Every structure is written in C-alpha cells, then in structure tokens.
UniProtKB/TrEMBL annotation:
Cited InterPro entries: NAD(P)-bd_dom_sf, Sc_DH/Rdtase_CS, SDR_fam, TR
Family: Belongs to the short-chain dehydrogenases/reductases (SDR) family.
Taxonomic path: Eukaryota, Viridiplantae, Streptophyta, Embryophyta, Tracheophyta
The protein's name: Tropinone reductase homolog
Keywords attached to this entry: NADP, Oxidoreductase
C-alpha cells in the first residue's frame, strides 16, 4: 500500500504516518517546517519505516502541484490512500477575522484538501482501489467558540466528503471524514 499523509510531522498526522508504516505501507508526507520534517524522516528511518517526504506549504497552490508531482514519481503513478490531515486555525471573534485569516484558514484546511483530491484522483483510480480520508473536526458539526472560520472550513470539508464519495464511487475510490474533538497538539 502507498499513502500520502499531509502534515505528518506532528499530532494526528504523525500518528497516522507511524501506524501506516507499522502496517508495512510506504508513506509520503509533507510539512512546512524543514527541520521538523528532517528530524521525523531520520527517526522513521531508524525505526525501519518506509517514509519519504518534502517541504510543502499547502496554502500555496504551486507547492501542492509540486508535492503531487513528487508523490506520483515516488509511487510510480499509483496511490492507494490520501489523508488530508494538515490544518490550521486562529481563534478570534467573528468580527475580528481579517482577509488574511480567511485566506490562510480556508486555503489550508479546505482549498488545499479539495485540490489535492483533484490532483490525486488519477493516481487513486490507477491503483484500482483508492481511499481518501479527510481529518475534519467536531467543529465542522457544532458551534465552537471563537472558531467560526475553522468551523466553516471543516463544515465545507464534511460536505465535500459526501459529494466526492458519491461521485467517485464509480472509480472505486472511497471518501470518508473523521471528526475528532480537541487534541493536545498544535495546529499552527
């Protein structure tokens, strides 16, 4: 099995990378932080895991294109699993959010995940059986104080999960979302 896990150097993403690797999957991950990525890759190498990765700021479209190009080469044009995990948040009152906040949160949490699905679709289809997992949030299902933009990005993610699940079932690609509650790791 082959898997792309975004934001795999800490938190839920790190745990997903390690779990896939323990099961024998080849994993590719990305992070905005080169030092953090290099440290994780070295640790995974010592554990005997097959994990590769590259630096990528998912809020930048051209970097997503380059990421998927690298992943396609690494996995020879076939991907079994895409985990859209990377995310960010800024906690503020709704009236205090700026256009920059909107672009960062929606761009990282929703736009990047949607675009990666588009880019990964041919590689998931080529594998014969694909799976996409969105790491959403309870915040996308209920009100969370001072997190209206984060909640909106996760709510959009929940809806697109339903749409892609129906649209891509014919291509043998499953699409699901997991909505955890607060975890004790950083989103920034």
């Amino acid at each position: 099995m082959s898997a792309l896990v975004t934001g795999g150097t800490r938190g839920i993403g790190h745990a997903i990378v390690e779990e896939f690797a323990r099961f024998g999957a080849a994993v590719y991950t990305c992070s905005r932080n080169k030092k953090e990525l290099d440290e994780c890759l070295e640790d995974w190498k010592h554990k005997g895991f097959r994990v590769a990765g590259s630096v990528c700021d998912l809020s930048i479209r051209t970097q997503r294109d380059k990421l998927m190009e690298a992943v396609s080469i690494y996995f020879d044009g076939k991907i079994n699993i895409l985990v859209n995990n990377a995310g960010t948040s800024r906690l503020k009152q709704a009236t205090d959010y700026t256009a920059e906040d909107f672009s960062l949160i929606m761009g990282t949490n929703f736009e990047a995940s949607y675009h990666l699905c588009q880019l990964a679709h041919p590689f998931l289809k080529a594998a014969g059986s694909g799976s996409i997992v969105f790491i959403s949030s309870v915040g996308g299902l209920m009100s969370v104080p001072s997190a209206s933009l984060y909640a909106a990005s996760k709510g959009a993610m929940n809806q697109v999960t339903k749409n892609l699940a129906c649209e891509w079932a014919k291509d043998n690609i499953r699409v699901n979302a997991v909505a955890p509650w607060i975890i004790e790791t950083s989103l920034i």
